[in-house]
Amino acid sequence: MTGPLLLGVSNALFCLGVYGLLTRRHAIGLLLSVELMLNAAALNFVIFGRAYGDAQAQAFTLFIIALAACEAVVGLAIVVQLVRSANTILADQVDLLKG
Amino acid sequence: MTFGPLATAFLLLLGALVIAGAAWVVILPNLFRAALSLGLVLFGVAGLFILLEAEFLAFVQILIYVGAILTLVVFAIMLTTQPQGTPGVPASRQRLPAALVSGGLFLLLTAATRPLWPQPSIFAPVSLATLGQQMVTTLVLPFEIVSIVFVASVVGAIVLATAKRRPGA
After folding, report:
1. C-alpha distances in angstroms, B7 versus A99, B1, B13, B48, B56?
2. B66: which DSSP letter?
3. pLDDT digits (tens, 9 = 90+) for A50-71
4. ipTM for the complex?
5. What's the first-to-final CA gap in chain A, in angstroms?
6. pLDDT the model gives residue B69
7. CB-based contact B135 A78, cutoff 8 Å
8. Residues in contact with B31: Cβ distance below 8 Å, sequence separation at least 6, in sequence order
9. Cys staple from B76: which of A18, A61, A76, B126, with CB 3.0 to 4.6 Å?
10. Radius of gyration of chain A (CA)
């Protein structure tokens, strides 16, 4: 019972991240939703690593955390530069390429 | 794995904390509160790691995710708040289609991952020594590549953040 419950928490976390990614207009709000999805994936790796006794799955979680840090750094630099040049923080108002 | 009654209680508590925090992250219109809710989610996930006997990962999660990434996000929110907000603009759009999509995805993921759970789990928890061995034997190539990715992302972020604004751009 606790196994599927843990998986349910991980799945719900991922789906809430997807909801935030589809709904949020603020650029940093999108980044927060992506962080939720990454955490859900890391939790999934740890759950299955514990269930099958696999060390490689839990070592891979370290890479997920490291790459989430890199992605947050570059993403926030882009957002700061975007606010400077487009003068808006809402992602759907940056539509210069729209036909 | 078999959880005793106390561990099951902690599991339910941490699971509720994680889901509630994640719901706040995606719903709250005030972005600073959404970032603090993300901190709550990260602590809850670290608690779940401890429950799954992956203590080193829990400490790494708190150190790096809460200590570095969340701090960076809060800095970026402080740097990019606009002094005057437009009051009539909604904070989120297309909520119902997004809710349908994420609900459908949840059902799909649950149906796909339910048969994968082994019954029962008789394996020992993953030890720190085994984790370290994996890092230097099987996963040594991703380890080195992540170092290159770190350097590239730091250099790229510095270049992006210090780029001069072109006049008239």
Report:
1. 56, 11, 10, 10, 19
2. I
3. 888 888 999 999 999 999 999 9
4. 0.92
5. 52
6. 95
7. no
8. A26, A28, A29, A32, B77
9. A76
10. 17
Place of tokens 């020992």: B124
Please indicate whether residue B65 or residue A84 has the higher confidence score (pLDDT). B65
Which sign does the torsion angle of CA B64, B68, B72, B74 carry? positive
**Which of A1, A13, A90 best probes binding to B when mutated, by most B CB atoms within 10 angstroms?**
A13
Selected residue with higher pLDDT from A22 and A94: A22
What pTM did the predictor assign? Answer: 0.90
The span from the CA of B16 to the CA of B22, in Å, is 10
Q: Which residues of B touch A68 (CB under 8 A)?
A: 65, 69
Residue type, B35: A
Stretches in chain B below the pLDDT threshold 70 = 1-2, 82-91, 118-122, 165-169
CATH for A3-90 is 1.10.287.3510
